[in-house]
Amino acid sequence: MLSRRIGTFVSNVIAIILAFLFAYTFRFGWEPDDTFMNINDALVLSYLLLCYVLVFMFYRGSNVSGRRGFLRLFKECLISVLFTAGVFASIVYMTHISDSIPRLFFGYFFSAYFVASLIISGIVHTIFRAIQAHHKRQTVVFTDRSNKEGLIRGLLKNGADDFEIIGVAELNAKDKSTFYSVLTEKPEKLKTKVAEAGLVPENLEEISYNFVKEKTDPIEFLKRHNVDLAIISVDHLDRERIRKIIDLVGEMGIDSMITLDSFSIETFDSKLEDFGTLEVVRFAPRIFSQFELLIKRILDILGALIGCIFTVIIGIFVAPAILIEDGGPVIFKQKRVGKNGKYFYIYKFRSMYKDAEKRRKELLKSGENEMDGAMFKMKDDPRITKVGKFIRKTSLDEFPQFFNVLKGDMSLVGTRPPMVDEYQQYSRHHKRRLSLKPGITGLWQTSGRSEITDFEEVVRLDCYYIDHWSVLFDLKILLLTVWTVITGKGSE
Q: In this structure, which of 258, 285, 353, 401 has its CB flanked by the most CB atoms within 10 Å?
């Protein structure tokens, strides 16, 4: 995982700096006015950092999982320190700076570096495990193997611990399949916060699995539930059927992995990557760069912090107006569907009367919906208050969603999150628009959202955004959004 690699890199850089300061102080004493005044001091620290960068680039240690515990972490830190020491020794020999600093200093440094690296890496590893315990990828396995429990244990044994298997599709002959929900039962000692942080080694033999046969079709389950990943693990299945499964899963925007030799599928991106100690191929309509996604999240956080400040300021003026006209809550909270079908609550300044949800059902029955497809839209919606018309026209009602962005449920730019009843009407290809986090704004909004009356056109724009997404594309949409808000185009 990229996040683990970044955590490892940052941990070791911090450890090198702390170890250098410790070794310098222990050997020469601490004199702030003189430290780094000699060019060799700064030069040695720069060489040490450079050596680690070289080791980091060319040595890829195995993933340290919570099941492998302290000994694996100890081994990884020790190897990294020894490699860094070896590269550093070569550099100082070739540059002839070894005579200017006592050798005892280097002994202090590498000893301190190992201890600091072990401690900081352990802390970072524990934090990652704690986060991972609450953000595991919901996974469904497609297989033709009869030993379902053995299959799950085999996947977990290979060190891939950032996913949770919630279902198994047993592939039978003649293109039929049986779907089982998977209930994981752990002993009490593995349900504690300490265990979730990876401080208690997991023995896979202590974990049991119950398989509940469901009436639903596997593809129907993927369409209606929060599923982040599909794994295909088969022995004798023909290639055409595997291709069909990948097509059906990919049509919903869900990534799939297969534990077989790779074969090309023209309509999907594919990428060979590690899944624990296994090599798998990821298939997806679009495979995103983890670095770009990290940049997107950083921009989301920075933008959300600024947006939250504006939300509070706007709320000082909007809240009294809402209360005076209609009373009731200022903030409207509604259950929506986010990335890959995950439910969350969206926040807005309330622009409708308190009974808006009830009246919406009546309007749907009377055929007032102006949209064709799984979305409700009405130009002169009688549920909107006078204050609501103003804050909608100026898009002020959207500002509380910056708190959704800060929480991580939404992004600044993305697709609009559907309501639950709209989501229940989706066809398979509609779900693909949920393969990225929903956004406050997006391509649909900047394309004149009040003028589009066909839901399939909304889906087409959303899929176009996903297929062509980049950080620069997000920035362009943000600028177009500002212009759209200023001109009022499409904000009805």
A: 401
Please give the Cα distance from 469 to 287 (Å, whole number).
Answer: 10
Domains present along the chain, CATH in parentheses: 2-133 (no CATH), 136-284 (3.40.50), 290-487 (no CATH)
What's residue 261's pLDDT? 45
pLDDT tens for 214-237 read: 888 888 899 888 999 999 888 777
- Mean pLDDT (the chain, rounded): 80
Residues 6+ apart with CB under 8 A from 411: 296, 300, 405, 436, 437, 438, 439, 440
User: How far apart are alpha carbons 226 and 232 in whole angstroms?
Assistant: 18
pTM of the model: 0.66
